[in-house]
């Protein structure tokens, strides 16, 4: 996604690191660059607001549950694959669904 306007920090870079920003897992200098970008770019600011709302909803609904580290790693890995334009192997989805229904 890009708004078509030139920015010091490219829209794709901002969106690639959006969850790190939301989770406060990046250096202050990088966070400041992203905040500056949001001030200049309404499409990215809108995406940030949407992701922030989803994160709050998930926390409210599931905030009491501890997430196993291996599940978090799998989710992040799959998100990275999707962001890179790759597809998640079907056997991964099926095996995850089967495990969930057990």
UniProtKB/TrEMBL annotation:
Pfam families attached to this UniProt entry: zf-HC2 (PF13490)
Domain Putative zinc-finger intervals: 11-44
NCBIfam families assigned: antisig_RsrA
Descriptive protein name: Mycothiol system anti-sigma-R factor
Gene source species: Streptomyces rutgersensis
